[in-house]
Amino acid sequence: MASSLSPECTPLKTSYDVCFNSWFEGYLEPAVSALQTADRAAYAKANAEEYELKCGKIWQEYKACVHKAIKDNGLEPVLQQAREEHPLATPPSSSEHRKA
Amino acid sequence: MHFFSQSFQYDHPWSHVVIGMWRKYPNPKCTHVVSVDVVDRSVDPQTGIIRTERILGCKQKAPRWIVKLFGGSEDAFVREICFVDPATQNTTITSVNLSLSQFASCYEVVRYTPSSHNRTAFTQTAEIQARMALWRSAADGLEKWLCQRFEQNAQLGKTAFTEVLRALSEERLGRPAMAA
């Protein structure tokens, strides 16, 4: 695993990455078939809940550590600006051009 | 403004590529990437789309004139937003530089979609533009350097990720991966 921005967050990052990767691999293959059908919403909801259940706690701990590291490294202003310029709340369409 | 684009195929199914995506770093071929952090992640309960926001920390030597003029340093940070849509089998990754963002913008979009015969199509585009109006020659120089570095890293990334996918494939088949 790569390290975190802040060495003290690296153990939390590693634990979180392991949790997410494990959930993700279990999620993906059946999701590809299930999500083609009307079961999509039900499957997605069940898996979103499972992710929260399995990885929710470690995510909160890691996230808190990372957000502090971002602040301590002075990255918050540029991150905020980048988020305002390109919120990317939804996937960009193939024809979408970025803001000048 | 400089444009960059490339596309090719990986000899792996889409889901394998997408799983491999999270395992790309650390990578001996991409030593310039020194840290990777997830700053936000959500799973849409309606669509099943996974949105991930990451910050990647890179260390790369910048020419001295750039460091002096723009106050750049060895540390460069990138913001990456990734959408994985299992229903449509589309992955889109958008990256933009956080460092030197007031001077130049490097906006990259990568897409992974299935193609035929258990292969995955990869497309990558980038727009690199210096933002400043003054000192045209400095802006041109900065843009050129960013472009060169981008192309170099894109090549390294392709080689590196190909190796990651191969090793992951061996792992999943239960055979020991060959030493890198």
TrEMBL record, chain A:
One of its GO terms (biological process) is phospholipid translocation. Keywords: Disulfide bond. InterPro entries: MDM35_apoptosis. Residues 77-100 are annotated as: Disordered. GO terms for molecular function: phosphatidic acid transfer activity. Pfam families: UPF0203. GO terms for cellular component: cytosol; mitochondrial intermembrane space; nucleus. Belongs to the TRIAP1/MDM35 family. This is Mitochondrial distribution and morphology protein 35. It comes from Candolleomyces eurysporus. The lineage of its organism: Eukaryota, Fungi, Dikarya, Basidiomycota, Agaricomycotina.
From TrEMBL, chain B:
Pfam families: PRELI. One of its GO terms (cellular component) is mitochondrial intermembrane space. Residues 1-173 form the PRELI/MSF1 domain. InterPro entries: PRELI/MSF1_dom, Slowmo/Ups. This is PRELI/MSF1 domain-containing protein. It comes from Candolleomyces eurysporus.
